Amino acid sequence: MLGWYHIALAILAGLALVLTSRTPRAWVWIGALATSYVVSVLYVHFPKPVAFWSPMPPAVTFLCDASLAMFIHRLHRERWEWWCLFVPVIAMSMASFVQTLSILVGYPPVVPVVYYASLLEAINAICLLLIGGVGAADLISHGRFHSSRHHGYGLAAVAHAARCKTTASKDRWRWHV
């Protein structure tokens, strides 16, 4: 059964897809974010086999988010991809890692499960809102609103700054997979 927050994230993803019609790289990131989210949510909600060992849900969430972070780290090209995606996804990965580590060493989860899930949902929503915002800024700047000296000029400057090549070096950390 889908909760209201699942439906809200699906609506945000659809809205982000509509707003990013001029930003095709955003579609890749929306798809990757949605895939990571769906895999981890399905794993949490489906029953686990009794006869076999199965990993803890925070561990699976950590693996999904860490894989997404490596994917973003390897393939990002523009500044908005780094700041709007990589940084929040690393925060999600670290939250899942801390939860998994506390369970592995025998302590109760650091954050209660309800708050942990809410934190991950909120970060996913923030990522989708930021991607949609970059797409909206691109739409406005392509609409030639930047020639006027009003709000459109400022939004065009934001869109230009977001679309600049990233200053984060991909060679800073060599992740060997």
Secondary structure: elements and pairs:
Layout (H helix, E strand, L loop, with lengths): L3 H16 L4 H22 L11 H19 L3 H26 L8 H30 L8 H13 L14
Provide structural commentary:
By secondary structure, this protein is an all-alpha fold. The chain has 6 helices and no strands. It has helices at residues 4-19, 24-45, 57-75, 79-104, 113-142, 151-163. The protein is elongated, with a radius of gyration of 18 Å. The two termini are 36 Å apart.
List keywords for this structure.
mainly alpha, about 70% helix
Please sum up the structure shown.
The chain has 177 residues and is mainly alpha-helical.
Number of helices: 6
Helical amount: over 70%
Computed Rg: 18 Å
Question: How far from one another are the termini?
Answer: 36 Å
What is the typical, i.e. mean, pLDDT? 84
Shape designation: elongated
Question: What letter string, H or E per element, gives the SSE order?
Answer: HHHHHH
Structural class: mainly alpha
Strand content: under 5%
For the sheet with most strands, the description reads: none
Number of strands: 0
**Poorly predicted runs of 5 or more residues:** none
